TrEMBL record:
GO BP, sorted A to Z: arginyl-tRNA aminoacylation
Assembly and binders: Monomer.
Organism, scientific name: Candidatus Wolfebacteria bacterium CG_4_10_14_0_8_um_filter_37_11
Name by which UniProt lists this protein: Arginine--tRNA ligase
Family, similarity comment: Belongs to the class-I aminoacyl-tRNA synthetase family.
Length: 561
């Protein structure tokens, strides 16, 4: 990886030569950082190492930067790597790579093909569970569920590409009060119960009650027997939840969102006693106390704003206790790392579940919160839904726009930002549509390669001959495209380390723009044969990177558009 090589060159001159006896003065947290430059006049890469060293050594950063530059240029290997090194105030060092470095990296893409960019990141080869969507089976999936679903699916792909063993989990909350509330809501819609404020109000509840009226009729209300009412409510709730779960599975399959484990709260957590096992761990840690008839966990000892209830005064386990049991079950199956993706109404949940994870011994636990989504059409927010009458479902969205558009539009935004989903743009079949723009560039690569075979069949035969001609790729557009391709390993590494698929989506747009710019300004077919052969290799490498990107992002690659 180019960025890593630059970091290593810097370490060599800083640690061994520049600092010398002053090495102990350097803070142990000091880290060499190299950045991709945003503008060409700032180089291909830059570093702020001199600025950071200046604070530690109490020296002028421009002087330190100049010393680093001199030392780098005195190293033969480093000197061959950089075309130019410049110092910029207040102490940045800017690097321009030689053409040979980029041409050699192009050879690596052509050699490694679909394995290119599988860089090492922390935790590689370890097991990680990624939990996403996990919506209660009490109704249809929302847009927020879809956003978390696409993110979880692609994050799983990224970490698998980087060498992790990933389990993709959907945690099904098929036990507890929400199932009872669903059952009572249906009975109320069927006219057997008085409607209560806490009941589910969506049109889908009434729709299910009508559709399954024969099943519901046998549960005629007996208000004098609350115990029987509880039994009826749970039975109806479980029947409806099973149906809703089938619909959820159908929708995520249509959306291309993959899971390899569906964990049942009732069967996998409660029936296997993981809630009681978690409770025992909390008790042994002496972190439990009673108050107001309820059982509490001291989550404030771990940074939570208040302690949390595990068992209510009525003797019912809370969602939090069930989730603690779920985390314990994950650990017992050999996972020390878990990532959970939650919707925008779960900010208060982070501290408590991280506290539980720490107590039960799950070493590495991360929580990602996705932000709210607005659907926009003709400049106005779209609120109403034909089915529910209250919100637009995820299923309705993927019927309205293509799966590729829905997925890409969600992935273009970082999870921690609110987003507006432009329905009109998502349905537009033009270069204004981001996913169309990216796909068109990838299709154009394939089209050029096919045309080159037709016009000159022999041009695709001697691969050794073509590789030797890569030194002919020396125009600004050749170099910029090679630079963009060579960035892929650092891009996928950053996306994996930051758990941020948006980095890949943004890169795919930048690559599409760079390739289209190359296409418009440079000839391929019809060019002098040696240069044409070299440029065809450049296009072949571009196609390889597009294929990896589309595979990881879960976007289709059409043959023609």
């Amino acid at each position: 990886m180019i960025k890593t090589k630059i970091e290593n060159y810097l370490k060599k001159v800083i640690y061994k030569t520049l600092i010398g006896a002053d090495f102990k003065l350097i803070n142990t947290d000091f880290k060499i950082e190299v950045f991709t430059s945003e503008k060409d006049n700032f180089g291909h890469y830059s570093t702020n190492a001199a600025l950071k060293l200046a604070k530690e050594l109490k020296k002028n950063p421009m002087q330190i930067a100049d010393e680093i530059k001199i030392l780098l240029l005195s190293d033969r290997i480093a000197r061959d790597y950089f075309e130019k090194i410049e110092i910029a105030a207040p102490g940045f060092i800017n690097f321009w790579l030689t053409e040979k470095v980029l041409q050699d990296e192009l050879k690596e893409i052509l050699k490694q093909k679909n394995n290119y960019g599988q860089s090492k990141i922390k935790g590689q080869k370890s097991k990680v569970q990624i939990e996403y969507i996990s919506a209660n089976p009490t109704g249809p999936l929302t847009l927020a569920n879809g956003r978390g679903g696409f993110m979880g699916d692609v994050l799983s792909n990224i970490l698998e590409f980087c060498g992790y063993k990933v389990e993709r989990e959907y945690y099904v909350n098929d036990a507890g009060n929400q199932i009872l509330t669903l059952g009572k809501s249906i009975l109320a819609n069927a006219g057997f119960l008085a409607f209560e404020e806490k009941f589910y109000k969506g049109g889908y509840v009434k729709e299910w009650a009508i559709k399954n009226s024969l099943k519901v009729k046998k549960f005629k209300n007996n208000p004098m027997n609350p115990q029987l009412m509880y039994k009826w409510g749970m039975k109806v709730g479980k029947m409806a939840a099973a149906n809703f779960l089938k619909e959820i599975k159908s929708v995520v399959k249509k959306a291309g969102i993959n899971f390899n484990r569906w964990t049942s709260e009732e069967k996998d957590i409660y029936k296997k006693s993981f809630t009681s096992k978690a409770l025992n761990i909390f008790k042994k840690a002496k972190l439990i106390y009673e108050k107001d008839g309820a059982l509490w966990l001291k989550t404030t000892d771990f940074g939570d704003e208040k302690d949390r209830v595990l068992i209510t005064r009525d003797g019912f386990p809370t969602y939090f206790l069930a989730d603690s049991g779920h985390y314990l079950e994950t650990k017992k199956r050999g996972f020390n790392k878990k990532i959970i993706i939650l919707g925008p109404d779960h900010h208060g949940y982070i501290k408590r579940i991280q506290a539980a994870a720490k107590i039960i011994g799950l070493k590495d636990s991360d929580v990602i919160i996705t932000q709210a989504i607005r659907l926009i059409s003709k400049g106005k927010e779209v609120k109403m839904s034909k089915r529910s009458g209250e919100f637009v479902t995820f299923e309705e969205l993927i019927k309205e726009v293509s799966i590729d558009a829905a997925r890409f539009f969600f992935l273009m935004h970082s999870a921690d930002t609110h987003m507006d989903f432009d329905l009109d743009l998502a349905k537009e079949w033009s270069m204004k549509n981001p996913v169309y723009y990216v796909q068109y560039a990838a299709v154009r690569c394939g089209s050029i390669l096919r045309k080159s075979q037709i016009s000159n069949p022999k041009s695709q035969i001697n691969s050794k001959f073509k590789i030797q001609n890569l030194n002919l790729l020396d125009t600004l557009e050749d170099i910029n495209l090679m630079r963009m391709l060579a960035r892929f390993p650092e891009i996928i590494k950053e996306a994996g380390e930051k758990y941020n698929p948006q980095i890949l989506a943004r890169y795919s747009l930048e690559l599409a723009w760079q390739f289209n710019n190359f296409y418009e300004k440079e000839r391929v077919i019809g060019e002098e044969k040696n240069l044409a052969a070299a440029r065809l290799e450049l296009i072949k490498a571009t196609q390889i990177i597009f294929k990896i990107l589309f595979s990881v992002l879960g976007i289709s690659l059409p043959r023609r558009m």
